[in-house]
Amino acid sequence: MCNCGSKDVLTPQIGVVTEIRTETSDVKTFRIEKPEGGKVFDFMPGQCAMLSAPGMGEAIFSITSSPTTKDYMEFSIKRCGEITEYLHAIEVGQQIAIRGPYGKSFPVTTEALKHKDLIFIAGGIGLAPLHSVIDYMLANRDDYGSIDVVYGARSKEDFVDYKELSEVWPKEKNTKVHLTIDKAQEGWTGNVGFVPQFLKDLKFTPDKTVLLCGPPIMIKLCLAALIEMGFAKTQVYTTLEFRMKCGVGKCGRCNVGNKYVCKDGPVFRCDEIDELPDEY
Amino acid sequence: MLKINKAKWAELFAALSAQGTLYLPAEVDGKVDFTVWQDGTEVNLQATQTAKSIKNVFFPQIENLLDFKTDGLKLSVEQRMLPEEDTIAFGVRGCDVCSFEVLDKVFLKEPVDAFYKARREHCTIVSLACSAPDETCFCDTFAIDATNPGGDVTTWLVGDDLFWQANTDKGKELTEKIQALLAEGDEAGVNAQQKATKEIMAKLPLADFKIDPKIPAEQEKVFNSAIWKQLSDSCLSCCACTYVCPTCHCYDVRDFEIDNKVERFRCWDSCMCKDFTKMAAVNPRVSRLERFRQRYMHKLVYFPENNEGTFACVGCGRCLQKCPVSLNIVKVAKALGVAKDV
Amino acid sequence: MQKIGVFVCWCGSNIAATVDVAKVIESVKAIPDVAFASDYRYMCSEGGQDLMQNAIREHGLTRVVVCACSPRMHEATFRKAAEAAGLNPFLLEIANIREQCSWVHKDKEVGTEKAIALAKAAIAKVRFNSPLQAGQSEVVKRALVIGGGIAGIQTALDIAEAGYKVDLVEKKPSIGGRMSQLDKTFPTLDCSACILTPKMVDVAAHPNVTIYTYSEIEKVSGYVGQFEVDIRKRARSVKADLCTGCGVCQDKCPSKKTPNEFNQGLDNRSAIYITFAQAVPKVPVIDREHCLKFQTGKCGICEKVCPSKAIDYTQEDEIITQKYGAIVLATGFETIDLTKFGEYQYGKSKDVITSLEFERLTNAAGPTEGHLQRMSDGKQPKHIVFVSCVGSRDVSGRGKEYCSKICCMYTAKQAMLTREKYPDTDVTVFYIDVRTPGKGFDEFYRRAVEEYNVHYIKGQVGKILEQGDHLLVYASDALSNSHISLEADMVVLATAIQPSQDAKKLATMLTASIDNNNFFTEAHAKLRPVESPTAGVFLSGVCQGPKDVPETVSQAGAAAVKVLGILSKDTLATNPCVASCNERICSGCLACENVCPYGAIGGEEKTVINLNGKREQRVVSVVNEALCQGCGACTVACPCGAMDLNGFSNKQITAEVDAIC
Amino acid sequence: MLESEACENTNYNPLIVAFCCNWCSYAGADGAGTARKSYPANIKIIKVPCSCRVNPLFVLRAFLRGADGVILCGCHPGDCHYTSGNYYTRRRMKLLMSTLSYLGIEDGRMRVEWVSAAEGNKFSETMNSFAETIKSLGENVKLRDLRCKK
Amino acid sequence: MQKIAELIKKEAESLLKENKVTAVWAWQPGEFYYDNSPVCFTAPEQLDKLVYNEFCPSNLGKYLMAGSKKNETMAVFAKPCDTYGINQLIKDHRIKRELITVIGIPCSGMIDIKKIKNQGVKGIISVSVSGDDVIVTTAYGDKNFKKSEVLLAKCMSCKGSDYMIADKELGEKMEVKCQKLNPEDGVKKLEAMTSQERFAFWQQELSKCIRCNACRDICPACSCEQCIFDNQEAAVAGKASANTAEEQMFHIIRAYHVAGRCVGCGECARVCPQGIQLGLLNTKFAKDINEFYGKYQPGADDDSKAPLVDYKFDDVEPTISAKGVR
């Protein structure tokens, strides 16, 4: 037992997995609550949490559910390593160690996003952090302008949360969802092509604010496309969601220049990233 | 100012050790390192520098943080007891004393590292002024006065007498506990020694070595310097420099599995290693150049940027002594052109 | 997290008597990823297999551990069952809680504890098992039979009859083996030559059979389906294709002082000789060691007299390299050396002979043309003593601990035939036990005693002394508990048999195992008695253990069937437990290549993804899975752990170690 | 001497890991079972295809994790199912044993024995004698990772 | 040595000028006279920084690995002892022979600055060496030493002045003049101790280890793409030294992995920041190999079969030594 009543920053809490949804062939969504019920901790959209696979270690994941959800938080996790392998194999009822929240959130409460017309651009599992923001905004719909979600995946089967994408969000006020897949596929009537081109095709006006999340190469190309369309880097927010270890800005792994991704990020405005050394 | 003669040091160490675990420089196999004092320990107060820094008193090389226990689907976490042991770090040179300030800026910054904090709070630092600096010393570069090293208590070794001056409440408290052993001393000897030491320091090869305090502002230029390649080409990517360094503080968190219990521990790691904090992915800085650059950029640029200009180097010179291929922060700084005298 | 199913077998009371099965179940159930655990009286039975298969399906088990008998017994059974239920067969492990637990520990508490530990180790290992897919290797449709005695002949014939090519290799100049030396066979008293010769002719004439006589195995490599064998065909110095077997050469040969091996050295032969009249092939061979032409350069008579110009002094040994799908060992036996049994005067007195020598002595084609006479003076013996168990069932260390099995019966045969042919001869047999389990065997023995009045004395012969032209036999009579001595004109020793000297050399070449007595070991004493533990190598005849002719012939047929089982397939599933190289880590030092016994590893310069995820070109090890046999030598030679072995990976073994410690 | 007596008094049961090659020694162990030749229960067998599969790392790992003794059994030299595997084993283990001794680890904590498939008796005798040796040596304290103390 | 330094400079210059190689590995001076470090020169104008004196102990062979992967042509200056390591790296396919030009340079022994400093010398301003005389100028006055008394341990057991591999040799061969040390002597001394004493000795030695990996990273036999200790999958000793048992493991396994490949260069012991006598471990393996399997010098050639990937039918059996219990 801790002798001073103060928990160390690296000591996790216990949560229990209460629901597991299989989203795609390699993505599952996990719902986690306190063993006695309720959310393990409060957070803001874009923040992350560290999940433990005892014996293997920890890995950081962005929280997918909305902060406005009172009872639980959710994580959409793609299978891509030892720890995610472990998580994908667990069952409902399994207890799990979790600590957080870590990092800065998207500036949802500031004028940076409030009352702005917004474009969310996501690729693959990149929807996870944005999902939280979108849900938060839909819950506080009147605080924000128009919402356009542009989401690309390899195939129809690779969309995470397809049901919500196709049935729930489009019904919301002033909200549009634009889906695209990489290659043509039977039964798919939507757009085919990569996200950067799709963006240009959608002809967004450059007065909107962009939240961009996905694999590094997609971010790079989308950013180029946006700039071509007349957007400024100050209008684009993205996340550098990788290589975090301790989560508390000490261990020395995740820094890019003097910024610690886990503490100063993972949400950055694209012009801030430009100031960092080219090491991400 | 108080003093104690060599004849009574054994009593002094015994008395100090009664107040807490006493770490002091001692010689084993011809090598001087901080060691827990016991009766018979061969104390060495002459050595300018210990082989390793004393950072492990606050930041042990390996530290168990917590235990996981599994029982079916149930999981429990039990944090380890925070250390409560009182410690005294005796004979700490000025450079090392300053290194604690660097570490504090990391571990005591929010969110606070509870283990480090507990250790730090339970320790009284008794520093020892330098009287015979070595050619590898360059604490002056960072405006550290080796002849007046600070800490909770400062001591000076002049001839056979150890002069003693408490600086803080903690230091005074400790002084009171051993008051009986101490006699009044006058400052003349100390002052003379301080003067002589400074004269020696001026003669040493690194006396003029200064780092431009403005380099953080030139981050981009430094980061993209062509010199990193040539320097890092000869680096072995070992972590001798990081592990002897008093300010390096990178760590890894790992699990150790025994039956259905898992111990989670924290251990030193080095940003220079290929497998730094390795889990699913490799060191994010994949090339040797990136890793090498990271360490020096961190010490000379990033850290001062985040900490009001404080460099993450105290000029102890250990890396100059220990690098297998004689690469070190001085060589790097000079090559980068951030040293003032070039 | 895996879903592991654990099944604990009672094996009737074999396991359940020493292991508290319920407690094992209870303990393993507490292990986090054990999703199902159950016990069953006989897991290997259909019911047990059903239980496992249902559990795999119902609980979606991803791994299975069976705690039962040795994996050498039923691993294959359970793996097959798991596969039928849709689980990759290599996701199953066996915890050996019978042979290595319940059968060696008496205390139930101790046994239970150990069974739990073994189960835990298997569970720890199985977590890291990965699904393996057996590869395929082609089968060479040709068999090799080593040894041309009745066992080898029968095996070769059976294989050939089924339509496959078979090569028969015999060390001696002629096939026929021991059986060709025998006079009559028990218990029917057929003439041995009369029943063997037709078979020899058949096999020689069979279009599917190639016979290599005077030949030996030089080298064996490869594996089941793909053995590669070098056969050394020794120089005969006679062109087989020209020779008509007329025998002039051996008649005219001036060197006639070589002991005749076929007659057990009871007479001499010429340097150029045909082993025996019915030899196949009936082609003489020059024994170069005793040939004047080869030893002195002079002579050359045979060349001159040969009507068909078949003599060729320049012939050299030939190495024939051939690929085979399967190999049968039929190397037979020889009698043991009796020098350690000085008390019998064997070798000192010409009238003390072995039973095999007796066979030649009574054989019409033998040195005495079938007349029973003493080798010392040519007189017909009036009193013969047979001594059984000479060197058999011997715990003194001079002979063999095992029973040679055939002696009781041939002794009875020899005694009976003597009495029949020479009714005035007195025949005494000393025995420890008379063992007659066999069809018609006991009747045969009783006939010897009852009809032919052979004196059977239960007792051991302690000493034999020469006295004048007689032999004095000192023995004990166990029934009357007295010492007796009797005079004899001839003593016949029923000498123990042992595997042929070549067995050991062959075992090494074939990596087939042999037991302490150099008999080849069968894969399973009861269930796989004709298979060696090495896949594709089968056993026929006495090389596996003492047998009489009918047993040998039936085993020879069985071995042939096993061979056919392989040859009839076009491909065989290869062992998927082979080495594999993690190219990302491999540094290309090729230590692995150096230790591989099969030449299955080689270095290749390749473009690989390095540890930083970048492409680079460097030398890495590449495993040829068809050649790899899965020994794992490479995995240890590899310093960085790039080389690993499927089924016995570093992780699996480490997990077992951790679980046990 | 005193140590070993003390151990006997406390019913000290050494933990022993036995690596056995599949073709000879594991079959030999089965043979011991079939013949009901007993040996101490604290000897646990790990099956490997060939003795040459046993990495010295496994042996060290066993000691690190608290094994009191490690024994490695393989086919007799010359009889290896894989022709030459046990020849490599012989060199590897010879050097390992020599080094362990050099580091001050008690001689005898590790052993290599050649046991054929037919030598069930020898297997059981070997295990009994090895267990006795380890009993007389007492607990492995020198190579054990302190965290693994049970 | 100054003369040889000139020869080296000239050679390097011509190699680079004539584009025979794209890189030359040599040494450059540090802050003090004694801390030269390895460096890669790629242009002739950089060569004024080239240095060769009694403080160039590093073997440059391992640096060739990176360039070899990129198919760069490189020249390397190698002292006689360095050539063993280079051969070993070629044998392990870590350096492509055809890419490298090995230039043998004579050596009369390297000075161990630690030996000088251990005698209480501090504040070194300069060092000058002429013949056997070493004059150390310090902020506290001058000190004189005999070179033969302050040589590196590895030089005191110098394997001789011959090059095991060299495309060209510069200057006249030189001998190391000093009281020679046989590295096996230390091993024999330990072997003569009791088991308990040996254990105590190694506990003391190995507990100093801080797992900085300097011994491994300098070692010409440790050239794996990924060391087993960095491979989580392999589950061997972790990166932290949790207790002496783990340190023990690290050093046994490392010594084991280089057994039969360790060229005996002594660099591991030289670079150990904690002064662990690592040579005693590696030399033990070498000594055992020589005794059990016949004399073998790794690195003397680039094609022989190393003892641990070889065997003889009548190799010595791994039985318990005569001194053993029972």
From TrEMBL, chain A:
CDD domains, sorted: sulfite_reductase_like
Molecular function via GO: 2 iron, 2 sulfur cluster binding; flavin adenine dinucleotide binding; oxidoreductase activity
Location of the FAD-binding FR-type domain: 10-108
Gene Ontology biological-process annotations: pyrimidine nucleotide biosynthetic process
UniProt-recorded name of the protein: Anaerobic sulfite reductase subunit B
Origin species: bioreactor metagenome
Gene that specifies this protein: asrB_2
Automatic annotation (TrEMBL), chain C:
GO terms of molecular function: 4 iron, 4 sulfur cluster binding; metal ion binding; oxidoreductase activity
Classification via PROSITE patterns: 4FE4S_FER_1, 4FE4S_FER_2
Domain 4Fe-4S ferredoxin-type: start-end pairs: 234-265, 282-316, 577-606, 619-648
Listed Pfam families: Fer4_7 (PF12838), Pyr_redox_2 (PF07992)
Cofactor section: FAD
EC number: 1.6.5.11
Keywords: 4Fe-4S, FAD, Flavoprotein, Iron, Iron-sulfur, Metal-binding, Oxidoreductase
Coiled coil (UniProt feature): none
Family matches, as InterPro entries: 4Fe4S_Fe-S-bd, 4Fe4S_Fe_S_CS, FAD/NAD-bd_sf, FAD/NAD-binding_dom, HdrA-like
Assigned protein family: Belongs to the HdrA family.
Full protein name: NAD(P)H-quinone oxidoreductase subunit I, chloroplastic
Gene that produces this protein: ndhI_33
Automatic annotation (TrEMBL), chain E:
4Fe-4S ferredoxin-type domain span: 199-230, 253-276
Protein name in UniProt: 4Fe-4S ferredoxin-type domain-containing protein
Organism field: bioreactor metagenome
A Pfam family that the UniProt record links to this protein: Fer4_8
InterPro entries given in the database record: 4Fe4S_Fe-S-bd (IPR017896), 4Fe4S_Fe_S_CS (IPR017900), Helical_ferredxn (IPR009051)
Upper lineage: unclassified sequences, metagenomes, ecological metagenomes
Single Gene Ontology MF annotation: iron-sulfur cluster binding
SUPFAM superfamilies reported for this sequence: alpha-helical ferredoxin
